Amino acid sequence: QVQLVESGGGLVQAGGSLRLSCAASGRTFTSYTMGWFRQAPGKEREFVAAIRWSTGTTHYTDAVKGRFTISRDNAKSTVSLQMNNLKPEDTAVYSCAADRGYSATYAVISSPRVYDYWGQGTQVTVSS
């Protein structure tokens, strides 16, 4: 049974940093794509970043480029999202997701529909 468990959320002032982690278990994830999505109150779920586990290839939404970094740790089977220079508009519930298929384009890899497994989410709140 696949499990994705997020941790690391919290309250931070604007300009601060947080590091989210997603512990993945129940499969060998080396052929998967792992993504981070976020959802603010009253808004649709939004793609944040993704990484292909086998190659380390990364994708980011424009709003976080240069501020967020996604990475994976093969030994610990975890995917992390380092978030720097946080802004109040980054406030949301952040969820980790796993796509067992091969999503070749940004348009596909950024769609929540292609992801097969989801974590429960962790709250990130950025105060101004």
Secondary-structure-based class equals mainly beta
The overall pLDDT average reads 95
In percent, how helical is the residue content? under 10%
Choose one word for the global shape.
globular
Total E-strand runs: 11
What series of H and E elements makes up the topology?
A: EEEEEEEEEHEE
Query: Span from first to last CA?
Result: 40 Å
Q: Can you walk through the features of this model?
A:
Helix content is 3%, strand content 48%. The model has no long low-confidence stretch (mean pLDDT 95). It contains 1 helix and 11 strands. It is globular, with a radius of gyration of 14 Å. Strand 7 (68-73) and strand 8 form a beta hairpin. The chain has 128 residues and is mainly beta. Strands 2, 4, 5, 6, 9, 10 and 11 form a 7-stranded mixed β-sheet that branches. It has a 4-stranded antiparallel β-sheet with strand order 1-3-8-7, with no helix packed on it.
Keywords:
single chain, four-stranded antiparallel β-sheet, 1 helix, globular, seven-stranded mixed β-sheet, 128 residues, mainly beta
Question: Topology of this structure?
Answer:
Layout: E1 3-7, E2 10-13, E3 18-25, E4 33-39, E5 46-52, E6 58-60, E7 68-73, E8 78-83, E9 92-99, H1 106-109, E10 117-118, E11 122-127
Parallel strand pairs: 2-11
Antiparallel strand pairs: 1-3, 3-8, 4-5, 4-9, 5-6, 7-8, 9-10, 9-11
Summarize the structure.
With 128 residues, the chain is mainly beta. It is built from one helix and eleven strands.
